Amino acid sequence: MSPEDIRLFLDETLDQLEVLEEEIVRLEGEGHDPRLLQDMFRIAHTVKGSSATVGHSRMSTLAHAMEDVFAAMRDGRLEPHRELVNVLLDAVDGLRELAAALEFASSGCPGAEEGAGEVDIGPLVARLMEATSAEAGAYEVHVRFADDTVMPPVRALQVIQVLEGFGTVVDSRPSIEDIRAEKVGLDMCATVAAASSIDEAMVEAKVYEVSDVDRVEVRRSQGSAQGKAAVGVGRVPEPAGPATVPTGPAGSTGSAGSADPAGLAGAAGSGDPTGPDGPGDLPGSGGPGTPIGAGGPGGVGRREPVGGGGGNGEAATEDVPKLLGRSKTETIRVDVDAFDRLVRIVSELAIDEARLTEVQRRLSALEAHSGRIEDLEQITAHMNRLTTELQEEVMKARMTPLASLFKRFPRMVRDTAASSGKLVEFVVEGEDTELDRALIEEVADPIIHLLRNAVGHGIESPDERVRRGKPEKGRVRLAARHVEDRVVITVEDDGGGIDPARVRESAVRKGMIAPDDVGSLSDDEAIELIFQPGFSTANQVNDVSGRGVGLDIVRTNVERLGGTIRVKTSVGKGTSFALSVPLTLAVFRALLVESCGQEFAVPLSSVVEVTRVPFSEVKPVGQGHAIVLRGKVLPVFDLCDFAARSNGAAEATDATQATEATGAAQAGEDSPRDHLERSTGRALVVVARYEDMRVGIIVGSLLGEQEIVIKSLGRLARCARGVLGGAILGDGRVALILDVARVLEKAMGRSHISGSGSEGGNGDRSDYQFQC
Amino acid sequence: MPRVLIVDDAAFMRMRSRKLLEDHGYQVEEAQDGEEAVKKYVETSPDAVLMDITMPVMDGIAALKEIKKRDPHAKVIMCTAVGQQSLVMEAIMAGARDYLLKPFDPDKVLASLKKLVG
Known about the structure:
The complex is a heterodimer of chains A (772) and B (118). By secondary structure, chain A is α+β, with helices and mostly antiparallel strands.
């Protein structure tokens, strides 16, 4: 099996598992659906077949056990109850871990092969088998060979042979592969799955017949005993901790030994290998047990948008054709790194093309009317068209529907809800929205964070919700949509909301703001504090309805992408976070402008119009400025301020602040604003929009439109908020790409802050938008 | 009285084994290579076979496979020296029921036979 084959197998299998996981979660919400079950059966079957082909018997065995469960459900022999869904989801995780181990093993890293196959599938298979048949069971077998055993691998092989006589050996330590490689110690354990119950004593007797076997213990696996108790079967759990194993599995030798206790503990429904915990105890971290009685079946609902995020219709019937449709699209898989290199090369090409055009333009000016460079003009024009097309196509290929990310979340929300004792209906909308692949990866963490917060802390406990007169089941909504050249992702809950009073209290207690100043913060400003570093730690979670856990990190990450995050909250009603990120990180058309010697690029999609107003009409409003355009007040921002700041001169900053404090009309001689007054007496204003808001950007001059490629500015860009990155122009100079959302925030923020009438303590904040 | 077929190319080894087994109430047949072992097995249908691995003409594993072909229930114990682990594994996978390490520990030989034929 070549590494390429393995790669393909892994890619395909992981994709399939993702679909399967999504379907399992949906199954819980929607119950019996023959077509869904058939599809799940098909996936398990495919995974079984392909993993057997690559020689991965554990994956194949596990997938086979899942396939049996799906078949039983499809044929109506089994109902998808909550515990069964837990088992199936755990099995998906198990398959993923096995795939990850395989990936690692085939990575060629030193020691990789040693670490492979540490995943213990025995308990999982046992639980799956017990689900399909009350008779069926899995048996844990522990064997200890005599100290003077001469060829332990041969004995281990004999034990396996004996066990095969009773059922299927689904897993063993050492594994068959270990045995073949002669990596065997004196301890051995195995899981035997039998279609009907077998007599433990009989198995023991048969294993004893193998020479050199010192001790044997066979026990019916407790894999699903806990779950059965939970759904009312009520098997009395025996003390099943590893402490009762006389041979002490911790003493296992050989390469595979270390995982043994965990395997046994897992089977006992407790992740704690040290205590003799019964299966009825709280689930430990490592155990596959179900979380404590959290919510009933159907705790997590799901609604699929039909079409582009419109009505809901018959979700179940719509989804299956959609699923089948997947395979009809003709696609090829391309290595992500290879594709990224392609994108980079195309970007470089675009820059060269722009420079070439620039050279041609200058030559044309020199050689005007001579006709000697007509060819060059034609070539550059053609090249320009081609590179533009090439870029568009490449960028389009990078666009991926958010569904690839969103489909991971129902499972996560379900698990978070279960472990925090919440009842949650999870609604996903707009997953067809496309976003640059690189960005999808980047927004994953922030969304996960926000969803966990929403479920874990936003939504109240069922009791509390009832007390507050709300439906017992909370609602969390994840939605995505295109806004201009950005994608806005909303995470919304109908939970307790964030109480600004408590945020203020907490901020003062943490010394983030002086007690005297805190009163001057508006509620919105107070809420904004949750994004400040150090605002919240786990301890504060409940103080502020559970918000603020690492939200500063979320904000930092989002802003790194040129994105923004906003929060709207209403006490008692819920909270909504909106992430807005650019559609792509790489290329777009921009309006190039100049201000105070610095070139800037304004994304063309944000530009509404360009207009001139007499400079005298630019009125100071608080610390900011505004003009009246066709009867409406438009906040304006002078790009020259920013040019001065981005040039890094401290005096310039001071001068600017002085200017702002005193108003433009009385600006000092060194003020950048003189530039405007001296030039024409009229301000050139680029009106840009973000969502439904507009801002005027005062610029020195317009340079034209151009396709630009974003280059990260590294630390500089982080220091200069309001800048998405840099773009290399045709003549090799660098233009700063404006982040309109930020500029708007700055322009609005200023008037807003001054509107609240505060000074002093707010100085920093008006500044932080654009400075380190 | 259980009957055991001893297969070994060394006459000395066959003699030692015969003495041990006869002293403990077994009836013994002998063969000196694999080919002969298969022939004798078919003729006498012994209850168990003690089979050396390294032998001329037909080695012990080949003989084991031939015997298993004729009688899937044949109880064959492989006799081996240290260092033949992979051969023993092969034999076990081919259906050998046990193995004994040479030089023989009489107790182990008897214990192994007892488990298989009582």
